């Protein structure tokens, strides 16, 4: 507390006929309060200021606010506004008692509530980050073969969100300096992730997942081309008929029935696909079960990869519907949870 001085201290004392003593002092008071920035920028900070006497106890002196709404109202409302903040003053007319020194002391409490203008944060942080996420969905309608255009769109969007995250941290440092009148180089400290950090990290994660989806599509396309070439070579090798030799021996070899059956079995097995041959040869005991499970897993993995690399862009079509749906669900849950928590803390601070 610092008393204002012009030529002398701005203070006066008056004694009225009804034994009323009035003391007026012009002073500047610097108040420091504990603040929780977990809900930043949806946080509401409350600071209680008690005015009382250190010397006189409750039995000697009682402090209370003057009951005159015209001169000193109990609620000043939101008339005191700053560019980014709303400050409200509310007087507590209850009997407030604090124990210190040699007994209980009466105090008159003034509750100062600080809240932020959410409009500026919506326009500067939430709206641009949402637009960046929506821009990343545009990559799903770009042909997967256009690698430079699609990669530039996703990487640029991802870097823009990272830059925005750094900008928010710097702005938080300026906010902390204004509210607490101290020099800090980092954002307001909190025990958990702040509200706006959760939003920006989630938006960055959505864009990163879109980039991962494109990597999966590229890998599937590469695997699909390799599989098609291999299948074409296999079909050409199996489809070519074997011509009998023009000149050769006409000798006839006598073979037994068992040898002929064995030759027929080997010929039938050779005409089967590789996976079926493996299943036929190992169709007994625990080895068959393990091999069958492994082959089934490989078959499912192959189908998934071929599905991702489909030339018709099947995975992109699914992602174009799935990503917006997940983002809408996340946005609804985000705003409902944090707005309810902010309102609950604001009501608890008033009570």
From TrEMBL:
TM spans (from-to): 126-144, 151-179, 199-221, 320-337
Region (Disordered): 256-276
One term under GO cellular component: plasma membrane
Compartment(s) of residence: Cell membrane; Membrane
Assigned keywords, A-Z: Cell membrane, Ion channel, Ion transport, Membrane, Signal, Transmembrane, Transmembrane helix, Transport
Molecular function via GO: chloride channel activity; extracellular ligand-gated monoatomic ion channel activity; ligand-gated monoatomic anion channel activity; transmembrane signaling receptor activity
Cross-referenced PROSITE patterns: NEUROTR_ION_CHANNEL
SUPFAM superfamilies found in the cross-reference section: Neurotransmitter-gated ion-channel transmembrane pore, Nicotinic receptor ligand binding domain-like
Occurrences of domain Neurotransmitter-gated ion-channel transmembrane (ranges): 126-269
Residues in Neurotransmitter-gated ion-channel ligand-binding domain copies: 12-74
PANTHER family: NEUROTRANSMITTER GATED ION CHANNEL
Protein name as it appears in the record: Uncharacterized protein
Species of the source: Macrosiphum euphorbiae
